[in-house]
Structures are given as structure tokens and as C-alpha cells.
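Field reference: sequence -> structure
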Amino acid sequence: MEEVSYFKALADPTRMRICAVLLQCELSVNEIVALFGMGQSRISRHLKILADCGILSCRRDGLWSFYTVAAKGDGKQFIDAISYLFKISIFGDDIHRAEELLRERREGLVRFFNDAVRDWDRSRKEVLGSFNLDEAISARINGSGQLADLGCGDGNLAYLLASRGFSVIGVDASPGMITAARKKIGTMEKQLEFRIGELEHLPLRDGECDTAVVALALHHLSAPQEGLSEIWRILSKSGRIVIADFEKHGDETMRQRHHDLWLGFSREEIAKWLTAAGFRLDSRETFKLESGISLALISAIKL
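Structure field:
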């Protein structure tokens, strides 16, 4: 019986602890190793047992593997049925350490961008080469109304859009980037505003914006689908989202050089997340960068 394999998989206390944590979040193998203080071979064996029976799902991204409790299938139904068992206090310390690990991950990203402010133009050129992403995005946004530049960095795109008649709210999690962006406002203070905030918890009201731009920001999120759902919330009825991000690639150096968590996204991933968040895909264009990585410009409409 298939159910027997689930009980066998969870008969080990360590595997119960791993499931309790991965019910809350997705973690890489290295993060799970650090969290439980065990050797990688031992952790990998536990993960394989849980994944082979369908309790966990594994997402491979380049050379990294990320695990979470399965989001569908019989394994999910089994875990859902016994989920109350994972809420008991004995798992509290593990879950708290996982929360701390995720907090450190976010803070590390903020520190990276705070430090990157000084050389931001060079860093972007290293990624984009001669491709003018700001112009490409601006050329594909029509109409007027309130626009949000989410993950706005030092404000160059927000300034360009404001100069072309839009009222723009820029949002970024890095205080250093927001400070740099505010210095550029100059005489455009009526059209430009900058706020500190995370894409998963935007400092914007429901339906406050008509258009949202997310340029090279989704690949830094632990859960991009949560960011897209949050963007749906802040858009007005029939509002538009414009996404610029890398297509799936294998350049592992992007993790170290630019703090990327995802090595781009497949067409299927983006399409699935947009649909689940309540968007209708409108258009998609792909551009080959000098680095060899392809960049996709995607537009979708809020349903």
C-alpha cells in the first residue's frame, strides 16, 4: 500500500523535523544542512526518502536543489491529513531557526544592494551589456495613470517614466537604493515618490496602481508567486503588469556576483504563476544579451 511508504518515511524523527520546517518554506540542501547541523550525505538521504515517496518535491535550479513539501498529489493529501502533528511544540525550535535563516537571507540581499549602490551602473552593464532595458520597458507602456516600479533600485527607470508623463511610485527593500533614488527627484517631486518595502509585502493600497513594472527583481525572491499575488492586489481592475527577467539559464556565477536566488524562469513557470495570481498573459518578447543569457519582457492583464 502506498500509504505505508508515507508512514515509513516519517518514522524517523529527523524526517519529521524536516517536514515540519519545509511545510513553512522552501530551502536549499545547503540551508537544510546548516539548519539541522548534520552532514550533507545524511541530510540528502533523508530528503531522498521523503521525495521518493512523494511527501517532498525537489526544484533543481542550476547546480542547486531546493526542497519543500509537495504542493500536489497523494503525498500532499497525506501531509494535509496529519498537518496538525507538525504544530506541536517540539518542532518550534526548528521552525524558529528556519525563520531566522530566511530573515538572514533577506537581510543579506538588502546588504548586497546597499553596497551595490556605489557601482550600480557598472553592475547593470555587466548583466545587460549594451541592451537598454529602461528604454525597452518604457517603449512598451502605454496610457497614463499611477505606475509602480517595484524593485526600483536607484530610480533610473522611475525617473525616465516620470519624465514621460507617468506618476510613479518606486519601491525597493534597500534603504541605500531608496536614498539614491530620492536624490534624483529634483523638480519632479510631484510625479515621483519612493517607498521602502518588499515585493511580497508592498507598501501600497489595494488597487492603488494602474501599471506595475518588475524589472530584474523576481529572481531575487524566495517565492516569486507570492510577489505576483501581492502585485495583483495593488493593481486596479484590468491593470497591467510588465515583467523583465531572465529566461532559465545555467550561469551559476550570477548567484555570487549578483545575489540571484533563481537562475531565471522558464516560460511555463511564469505563465503558471501569472494564471494562479489572477492575470491573463498578454505578450512576451525575448532578447539575447551579450552575456549569452536571454531576457524576457512579459506583459499581463489583471482579471
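Note: The domain at 117-302 is CATH 3.40.50.150 (Rossmann fold).
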